[in-house]
């Protein structure tokens, strides 16, 4: 087969790269995901473009850096007209369908300005990040107290899932919370999964009704209903993202003896960097620095991942039974990691590989990929490479979109025909919206940080006048020693800044003119051939044949009497 | 009066800053323009954002750098949804009307993708740079040989003007060329204004039928027809832009004795800079390096400017007779200069002040501006400052748009309440579309240059690996000595690069979220107040009152049998 007909783009949320057995976890066995790795290529240096759901996904879907698309934080709308992989693939005759989460916020003001109705086909795609939504579910049903100033209220809640739970008899206003994401004590009290101390409790729900099996089934339902038109299905699961709680039997499968030791050093706690020191003071950091909390959370986190792998087994069996495994590319990915106490941090909003490195496994059924099955690639890959990869798989010509897409296709790696490695990868985080920026009295535009990583070095630049942070990845792969102040590393810091500055000046906004059109036209601008003459003194200066229409013409004298 | 009710934004095309008597020209008297300067503020350090019509205007109209809006060359469409001053002002209840040239290319592909019909109100504004077009006329009626690869065919031609000329009896297919922009020999042959050798000929047209009087009348007609709604009228005249030819009596008013001596040195011809050396080889440069050509062209150029000033006199008298002078802000500006042989160059596509410095005169009828009438300001002003200036005049709150507009309002200067000077101004030029880039075999993205100018220094950075050019503006105001290779100036070059790099990392694409919304929301993200809990171990870690909805809730036990 030339190319895969369909693309099943599966994204997990907040899944660390190192909690899968194919990526080396010694105790968490994920045989179903591992099997896809054995059938495809497993990428070991894949990094995201921002360590937060929204901006990371907006870069993945648009194939553009955050600095280019501007949707820099959760709830920041993606500007109307910004093209996504769905818009690009649809031009090639491939449907692009969403099942699950995007964390995309529609640009309601922009849509209104352009007269786009959210319920029109074009408007709905603008509002759903270029996808046709089979089911949109950002995986969080918010508590009613989320006020108008919450940055979260606008994102889509698990409405359909709650409807499903209520139909199954789970009562209350928000069974997503009370059952799927909470435990229950002996007196019938909800033990909210929002509280980490309850993470070792079984979620008070039948396993088959919990989120991962539910959304996996929805994905299968889409594939069952899909017609002959080639499709990209973005099956986007919320787990193992918080709330960290999982139903039996997954809730008590793992104990401390199965967990990776935290990657951290006492010296890290003493950092004098104001931004990093501020991060360490977050409640989430202080909480995850506690081993008792970490162990309860990881017990649920690992269970959630095990449940995901089991559900992937169900999904992959369905694909085989229906013949889809032969014509469907399968992509397994995550939007960012989870510190889980590494470096004394919780959540993900910084640039250690714990957070910015993600699993990426691609199975290509095409015979052209036979030579690379079961191999790994350590190429520096960015998530903005997926859109151009899918575009090529769908039969597109990269030169039609390389003025918009900032990544590069991974197909040469998948087919073993080349290794289009990049020298530097970039990641960005805008924390202007956070309480930390408020506490530090930073103007939003000064609360931005940029990661520049080569194979051997990682530099973190901060706007706002702070010194950089530097890690020696070759000799300090765990990123425990900040060399940002080291006089011995001034040259390395300068070299990394040169990469950053070259990147910052890149041409990212010429999105209306393909480069190839420029190359064609500039070949055709000989004097006299473009309809105007510039700097020509007289006919004698024109090439033969280009003269006629400019001279010799007769005109009736309409000169005004003087 | 609090603020001006209306704004008359007059732009001339290719008008040098130094060919007006109020800017010091010793022989070219422009009393009508000078009078507006005596009634308002004349800016002596106003620079454009790109030395080419299209990108310069797109920056002026959007209030954003070329690096931000991406319409980097003539004919590069302005991406659909990119907001312009018209879009901003209309929100404030002010009409924005175009009479004349914008050089804007509509993003037809983007409009089609979003289902915007060019003949709909929204579509038409998208296609006309946010203006309602009373008359769109880019001032050039192209010759029929302009092929499909001409970058010029798509821009709007002088269709209505040609219709007007034909109705007046000017015959032929293109009277814009044959009469308004050509002379006539004794045998009745058209002496095409495309040829510089005919620039001293009178254009073969009655003066009142030539372009400047025609379009000035059209502007007056709009103002006559305007209702009570406040309006911005962008009266945008093509002249003194080429073709360089003017009807009697303006064609022979000036001679060599009235022209400024060319600003150039023999040393400049010896430049070893590949890009600048390439520019010097253009036919237009070689032609304008000839004194005979230069003098014929300047004879027409000065006549065209004199004609403009006379027409401004007609326009300003109309404003006085109709009371508009009391409620209308008048802005006089140009989109770039014209080398006219200075530095051995023709046209405008480089960064000497000859090209990037432009006249800017603003008359504000508001009594708040009384203190500054007849004064000058040497603040470093950019054309992206006009959109925020107009927004403030229209009564807008800058904090509603400062995430989109990259300039700053000039109102404090006009009212003498402050001097919001900037330390650095920027200008960009993308020559990837030019034959020079083709000859140099430069990839389009490597054919980009950036000007960084402080009050005392000007650095020109080139992508593509070329060395920078540096001018010492304080000691070499004519920019004759390139210090880009001078070891003694390494520190200055480094300092200027620091400005460029800080600018390149600016946050220009977060166009959907006002900064003030971020500042409001980040104050309201206390734990328990935003609908989610992150990193909270237990209820005891929550502030009082934020706990209730998370605990104490009863649930019916739906746990699946195990």
UniProtKB/TrEMBL annotation, chains A, B:
Pfam families: Sulfatase. Keywords: Hydrolase, Metal-binding. This is Sulfatase-like hydrolase/transferase. The keyword Metal-binding applies. Residues 5-395 form the Sulfatase N-terminal domain. InterPro entries: Sulfatase_N.
């Amino acid at each position: 087969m030339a190319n895969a007909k369909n693309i099943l783009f599966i994204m997990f949320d907040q899944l660390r790269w190192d909690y899968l057995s194919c990526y080396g976890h010694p105790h968490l066995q994920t045989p179903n995901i591992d099997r896809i790795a054995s059938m495809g290529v497993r990428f070991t240096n894949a990094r995201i473009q921002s360590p937060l759901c929204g901006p990371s996904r907006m870069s993945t879907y648009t194939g553009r850096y955050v600095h280019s698309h501007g949707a820099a934080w959760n709830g920041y709308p993606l500007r109307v007209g910004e093209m996504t992989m769905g818009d690009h693939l649809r031009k090639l005759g491939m449907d692009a369908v969403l099942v699950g989460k995007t964390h995309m916020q529609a640009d309601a003001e922009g849509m209104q300005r352009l007269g786009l109705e959210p319920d029109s086909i074009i408007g709905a795609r603008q509002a759903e990040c270029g996808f046709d939504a089979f089911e949109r579910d950002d995986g969080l049903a918010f508590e009613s107290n989320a006020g108008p100033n919450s940055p979260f209220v606008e994102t889509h809640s698990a409405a359909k899932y709650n409807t499903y739970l209520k139909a199954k008899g789970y009562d209350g206003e928000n069974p997503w919370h009370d059952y799927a994401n909470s435990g229950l004590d002996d007196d019938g009290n909800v033990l909210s999964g929002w509280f980490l101390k309850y993470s070792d409790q079984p979620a008070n729900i039948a396993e088959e009704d919990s989120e991962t099996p539910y959304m996996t089934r929805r994905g299968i339902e889409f594939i069952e209903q899909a017609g002959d038109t080639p499709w990209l299905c973005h099956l986007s699961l919320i787990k193992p993202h918080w709330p960290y709680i999982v139903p039996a039997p997954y809730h008590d499968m793992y104990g401390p003896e199965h967990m990776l030791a935290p990657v951290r050093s006492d010296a890290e706690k003493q950092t004098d960097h104001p931004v990093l020191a501020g991060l360490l003071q977050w409640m989430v950091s202080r909480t995850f620095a506690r081993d008792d909390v970490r162990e309860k959370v990881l017990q649920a986190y690992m269970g959630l991942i095990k449940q995901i792998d089991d559900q992937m087994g169900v999904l992959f069996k369905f694909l085989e039974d229906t013949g889809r495994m032969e014509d469907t590319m399968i992509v397994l990915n995550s939007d960012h990691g989870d510190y889980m106490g590494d470096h004394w941090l919780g959540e993900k909003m910084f640039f250690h590989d714990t957070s910015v490195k993600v699993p990426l496994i691609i199975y290509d059924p095409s015979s052209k990929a036979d030579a690379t099955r079961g191999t790994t690639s350590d190429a520096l890959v960015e998530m903005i490479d997926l859109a151009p990869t899918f575009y090529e798989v769908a039969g597109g010509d990269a030169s039609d979109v390389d003025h918009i897409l900032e990544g590069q296709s991974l197909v040469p790696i998948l087919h073993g025909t080349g290794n289009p490695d990049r020298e530097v990868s970039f990641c960005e985080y805008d924390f202007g919206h956070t309480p930390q920026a408020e506490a530090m009295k930073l103007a939003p535009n000064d609360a931005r940080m940029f990661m520049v990583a080569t194979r051997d070095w990682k530099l973190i630049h901060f706007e706002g006048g702070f010194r950089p942070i530097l890690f020696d990845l070759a000799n300090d792969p765990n990123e425990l020693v900040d060399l940002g102040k080291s006089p011995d590393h001034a040259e390395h810091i300068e070299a990394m800044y040169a990469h950053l500055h070259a990147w910052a000046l890149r041409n990212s906004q010429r999105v209306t003119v393909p480069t190839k059109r420029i190359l064609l036209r500039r070949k055709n601008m000989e004097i006299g051939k473009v309809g105007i003459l510039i700097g020509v003194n007289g006919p004698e200066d024109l090439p033969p044949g280009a003269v006629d229409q400019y001279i010799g013409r007769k005109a009736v004298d309409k000169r005004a009497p003087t």
